[in-house]
Design a protein that fits this description.
The chain has 189 residues and is an alpha/beta fold. The chain has six helices and four strands; from the N terminus they run βαβαβαβααα. The chain is globular and about 45 Å long.
């Protein structure tokens, strides 16, 4: 990890690579990332690194599970494309997300975008587990999205966050451990 989140060059290649690197017999089947806003340090994975991660996943036949929990609310600049949007073959990325950060904690509706070959297994699993979200809430979110209101609401929130960040005092940034992080992080022994 660094200020840009996960470094794909550090991912295992299924072979002993020497001191200080991965010692695995096989590459992992999946890797979980939060490229829009790595938690807890706050780094954002640039597009070049996202493409490198996708190359690694294709090369090693691994699935990248992208937890896209608040990428639409970047603190600086415009949101970057999700890994799923960059996955032109549509075979390497499963994206998880929710509407909690944009619409509030009480909404409790999420989404999953997955490659076509994984959908039957995921649908079976969801059926077996039951639906924890009411159909009414799901339909309401779908209508909100279809109408364009979600996109407008998100743009308003992004502007409000940017305004607040510009006008807030800098006293909360007194922990210089990771300067790219939007909240205090303290290294402890």
């Amino acid at each position: 990890m660094d200020e840009f989140g996960l470094n794909p060059a550090s991912l295992p290649a299924g072979e002993w690579a020497g001191t200080g690197t991965w010692d695995v017999a096989e590459t992992p089947d999946a890797v979980v990332v939060t490229p829009g806003h790595q938690y807890p340090l706050g780094g954002t994975m640039p597009v070049s690194r996202r493409l490198e991660l996708l190359r690694w996943a294709r090369q090693h036949r691994a699935v990248v599970i992208e937890d896209d929990y608040d990428s639409e609310l970047r603190y600086t600049g415009q949101p970057l494309p999700a890994l799923a949007a960059l996955d032109t073959d549509r075979d390497s990325v499963v994206t998880l997300g929710s509407f909690t950060k944009v619409l509030g904690n009480g909404v409790g509706v999420g989404h999953l975008v997955a490659p076509d070959d994984l959908l039957p297994r995921l649908h079976t699993l969801r059926t077996e587990l039951g639906s924890p979200v009411s159909a009414v809430a799901q339909r309401a979110i779908a209508r909100f999205m279809d109408s364009g209101h979600l996109q407008r609401h998100t743009a308003r929130m992004r502007r409000a966050i940017a305004d607040a960040a510009r006008s807030s005092p800098t006293r909360w940034r007194t922990f210089p451990v990771w300067p790219w992080c939007p909240w205090p992080v303290v290294r402890t022994p």
